[in-house]
């Protein structure tokens, strides 16, 4: 029998922030949350590596943050609303951060959205592909 | 006695707030969006609710991963616009209705809904964008607001059926409140959108249209939709639509759809939907 969390895995290009991911990503997400405070943003900007070392996240997570690799952060337990605080701290628009996780350029993403977004056809399930 | 006169469903897309706050509401990209609420603004000015129970979700603003309440009701006197990295939205402080909020908490808990009571909670775009869409940019919000925050960030969120049932319990609570109040309930969030992964940017206009149709005419069917169905058809963040069922559950089954606005072009990353339903007795 397929478990609750397994049932989502048939959906392509999608990571659901489930109980496993939340546990995995707790410190990564709470690091992002800390950036709501201006003094923390300043301290992070002054020395990113040192700030990240002070948070008990994994080395992989630290590297993904340093690389601003949002797709990787999602795969390591990041949640989009928390990661949005990191991109905002960089002055990056939320939509551009989202676009960075897709295959094309951010211009391609913006064009796709302006004409109605990504189609559901062919994107419902891995099994139909 | 207090009574629920109507329900409003609306998306709470953050960029709508940004457009309004930065004076871009008249730009070609945004004009059709705000025009879609022209009728609603007139309608609500005429209806003059005393209190709005505003069902929304927090987006890692008031709640982080330290505390994840499934249903949280704001019982405070007021709620401040939440801090963001870009700064808080320049909107009025939200005034609560503690007496009714506490009464709803008591009534729903005794009805076996284990509500979290919150006496201090900042409110983010999930709550303030719907107020802006319906009321524009007043110096003060023209009614009291009871925030009802629903977890839709951490899976599992509540089931659609649980949301629908909570709506019914809220109605019962309101109708046993011993003061003549005109109450509205709003369900916010949605429609289809996905903000992460290779499938980001998903918009499913057909699903959204069917959702609106069923919200109006066959909410019992919607209440049976599973989380997987929402994520598959409406995107990972489209799960927010379950909150519309709390609104719908609080209305009469035969509530009248009096207005609908479904904007086909995605606003930022998200499809916009809006509906007004009135109880026949109102």
Give your account of this protein's structure.
The complex is a heterodimer of chains A (129) and B (282). In chain A, 36% of the residues are buried. With 129 residues, chain A is mostly helical. Chain A is built from eight helices and no strands. The model of chain A has no long low-confidence stretch (mean pLDDT 95). Helices cover 54% and strands 0% of the residues of chain A. Chain B has 282 residues and is α/β, with parallel strands linked by helices. Chain B has one domain (3-278): LigB-like (Protocatechuate 4,5-dioxygenase, Chain B, 3-Layer(aba) Sandwich). Helix content of chain B is 34%, strand content 21%. Chain B has ten helices and ten strands. Chain B has helices spanning 14-21, 31-35, 38-47, 98-110, 125-135, 160-175, 205-217, 219-222, 227-234, 242-249; strands spanning 3-10, 51-56, 71-74, 78-79, 94-95, 116-118, 144-150, 182-188, 256-267, 270-278. In chain B, the strands form two sheets. In chain B, strands 6-3-7-2-8-1-10-9 form an eight-stranded mixed beta sheet, sandwiched between helices. Chain B has a two-stranded antiparallel ribbon with strand order 4-5. In chain B, helix 1 packs across helix 5 and helix 4 (98-110) packs across helix 6 (160-175). Chains A and B meet through helix 1, helix 5, helix 6, helix 7 and helix 8 of A and helix 7, helix 9 and strand 9 of B.
